Amino acid sequence: MHKVRTEFPKNFLWGGATAANQIEGAYLEGGKGLSTSDMAAYKDPYGEGRVNNFTFNVSSEELEKYLLNPEKYNFPKRRGIDFYHRYKEDIRLFAEMGFKVFRLSISWARIFPTGLEDEPNEEGLKFYDDVFDELKKYNIEPLVTMSHYEMPIELTKRYNGWMSRELIPLFIKYTTAIMERYKDKVKYWIPFNEMNMNLNSIYTGAGVLEDKVTNVIQAAYQTSHHQFLAQAMTISNGRKISKDFKFGCMINAIESYAATSKPEDQLASLKAGQINLFYPDVQVRGYYPSYMIRYFKENNINIVQQEGDNEILKNGTSDYVAFSYYMTHMTEHREDMRDIAGRLDSPLKNPNLEISEWDWPIDPIGFRIVLNKLYDRYQIPLWPVENGLGAHDKVVDGKIHDDYRIDYLRKHISAMADAIEDGVEIIGYTTWGCIDLVSCGTSQMSKRYGFIYVDQDDHGNGTLDRIRKDSFYWYKKVIESNGEKLI
Ligand code: BG6
């Protein structure tokens, strides 16, 4: 019988998560090329009367303007939080909190500036060598995402990003270069961040200019097909490079509760769940599930595939399921399921849940549900690699009293402890934005997630000084006590 575990495993990997394009800055230093995320121009986040004025889609017209007259715009992701120059100080602070793991991503455009070069850029490779060495000093394990919402912009211009199958060999060249280089420094890899978010922003997830495709949903699934193949090939290659490598697929897990007990709504909720889990279904099982084949047929979605693709998928499945968890949604029956499935902005509001300042529903019990469902379905280890609360923080006399963040994390860690007791196997937990960083969705600096405050505003003003928040000391105790002390 499965042993009931009432505490976090001894070797549980506590830590925090980031992404290159949201922290590094130095967007043209060290030989780096321009990337898709360097084009996410800041827009008034409260414009059009919405708190979430997403900046993650870029049109052909905007791209042209941004390339021609960059000085006219504010590009927060070009600045990040200057991790490129301050990584030693930041890693020291992570070590002070007792981190066992740090999730970061490698910027493809630092290694292959346009994506097309034959040889990798040595200066780019050296930067990550230095970062990994610094982590090693403190025994912090790196967890490395190979593609987190960015790629060389040249690949967008030339191929319209992942719409083209040509991207696969270019990605394999990149991932082979980094796996060869860091085989003795990195064990845990995630080839793609939240591939399912291609349905939300095909530019952010797949470097595609939406105005250049005719059917955006079909395009999102076509880019995903190419990414599935690229991921599977990376994994089978990686297994030849090192036997120690462990690969995770990664989704934004959004549990979708049925809006009512009406069977039609229950069915709609099941379908929304399938659209979410379609991604790990392919990546863990190695084939397209039948419910999705039906969905494609019913919605006239035609994915161009080649002979041999099924074989590739079968040979590159994942060792663990990584996922981000921020919220749950509600689903009701609709004639057109495309209206509701896979989106970040749910049209239905759950009256039982509080929401964040950015209207994101807060649901710790949903976290336990997601952990249980994923484990029941796949029976391989899970890894929540993103979870956290985006909030406005105030500095008062040099201190940040972020009890709201502590409260949020405490409830989510508690839910995770419950899931462990339910029998779910979890490798570790990395909170999102362990140091304040530029928001992915809105390019704001003022949407903060960190234990460490970074003195910078949305327009790049500030000293960039790092300040420990109250949550910093709280998380340190959580780690020290291996999740026992949550108060
Ligand atoms: C995840 C992304 O979906 O959400 C991160 O992987 C992102 O890159 C995080 O930052 C939070 O979203 P936002 O828009 O608040 O930054």
TrEMBL record:
GO terms for molecular function: beta-glucosidase activity. It holds the Pfam family Glyco_hydro_1. Gene3D superfamilies: Glycosidases. It comes from the Bacteria. Keywords: Glycosidase, Hydrolase. One of its GO terms (biological process) is carbohydrate catabolic process. InterPro entries: GH (IPR017853), GH_1_N_CS (IPR033132), Glyco_hydro_1 (IPR001360). GO terms for cellular component: cytosol. Belongs to the glycosyl hydrolase 1 family. PANTHER family: 6-PHOSPHO-BETA-GLUCOSIDASE ASCB-RELATED (PTHR10353:SF122), GLYCOSYL HYDROLASE (PTHR10353). This is 6-phospho-beta-glucosidase. It comes from Clostridium amylolyticum.
